[in-house]
Amino acid sequence: MTVTQYEYCFMELSHFAPVLVADQEERCEKFLDGLRPEVGHTVAATNWTIFGNLVESAKRVEQSITEQRRRQDRGQKMDGQQAVQGENSSQGQGKWKKRFFPGPADNGNHGQARSNGQGMISPQPTFAPTASGAQQSTHQSSSAS
Asked: For bias kind Basic and acidic residues, which ranges apply (predicted)?
């Protein structure tokens, strides 16, 4: 419940027990007792004697808490996105994904992709025997997804 909603309920209910909130100080004390702890602890630092000032202060504290949470949530989302991006870039990925091309003779690399030294991933070439008996590179390429 927001401070505004609580104020409305408090005022409605105070009509049923006017003795409990007969003067400004008592009204302030009862209002403080019903505030959420995160708001009430901050607002209670001042000795309130004017109900309207107390309510306005509680609303400002609530707004400040809400804004702080939003900033923290955005910061955590940004940290999470940066961590994922960092993971991808540290693996040599980004737009480019590792491609695996197992071939009959893959030089012991077991079809692993390798970096071409420019931050891009390219497959290890596989070699196939030619008619003359020499091995010819059959570098396989793939279309980018």
From this structure: 61-77
